[in-house]
Amino acid sequence: MATTDHRKQSLYFPEDMLEEIQREATRQDRSLSWIVQQAWKVARADIRRMPSVNDVLGPLPPRPVAPAAQTATSAPAAVTTSAPASSDEPSKP
Predict the structure, then answer these.
(1) Strands, DSSP E only, in the chain?
(2) Is 10 helix (H, G, I), strand (E, B) or coil?
(3) Which positions of the chain have pLDDT values less than 50?
(4) Rounded to an integer, what distance in angstroms lies between the CA atom of residue 21 and that of residue 49?
(5) Model confidence over 34-56: pLDDT tens digits?
(6) Which residues contact 28 (CB under 8 A, 6 or more apart)?
(7) Cα dist from 85 to 12, 44, 82, 91, whole Å
(8) Cβ atoms of 32 and 43 closer than 8 Å
(9) Number of helical (H) and strand (E) elements in the chain, helices listed first
(10) By the 8 A CB rule, do 34 and 25 touch?
(11) What residues contact residue 71 under an 8 Å CB cut-off, 6+ apart?
């Protein structure tokens, strides 16, 4: 004979929903727990089709990459490029 796992869990329902579940439990002469368990069994396929919060928000955008610290070897091109020598200046030996 299989044993049943009886773990306690607090569930919170809006007052009107809880009253409706209680009325149904009374009508069927069943416990609140049994009613909620049956409701889950009936509705779980529909619930699994609902998007998760991550699906609704979509994937997070990639984080921006911080610019690398400039070193002497990675100086901007304007600094490393020299201007052509003017013909008026004497050339250095």
Answers:
(1) none
(2) coil
(3) 75-83
(4) 24
(5) 999 999 999 999 999 999 888 76
(6) 35
(7) 82, 79, 9, 8
(8) no
(9) 4, 0
(10) yes
(11) none
